[in-house]
Amino acid sequence: MSVASDLHRLAQDVRGQASTGAQAVYLDESLAGDERPVGSEADALALKRAYDRGERGFVALATGSTGIEIYTHTALAARVLKGRVPVRVRWGASLGVNAAALALCYGADELCGPLAARDLENKIAIIGGPPEDPARPSARHVEALIRGSGRT
Prior knowledge:
This protein is of the alpha/beta class. It has helices at about 5-15, 40-50, 65-80, 95-100, 120-125, 140-150, and strands at about 25-30, 35-40, 60, 85-90, 110-115. It has a five-stranded parallel β-sheet.
């Protein structure tokens, strides 16, 4: 089976879960908190066991070196954790903010990365202001991506 068909199957699996219809959130990387990486189904199962033992206050961070890997690990985490633990995707070196937002379709609950400073965000909103910086998007831009995914 191809990677694309495996990923499609995973996406179909998580679409039926209640957590994928929940409101998605975003946050600046400075507020990230305890992130536990998920790079395989075994990692997701380890987080499920930690939750079942009573551990709280952490999120599952989908990791990978490519977008496909990150989407796959997002879907695996969402399927295994079933909304018990939020699944987070970061934008940055491996994934731009637009690509990270696509992970919402694969079961991500949270987007995280560096946001534009508030004064720059205000300049962007003014006609003739600088264009949106994909490495440090404005909060408004990330909110628009979440709305576009239907997760508001």
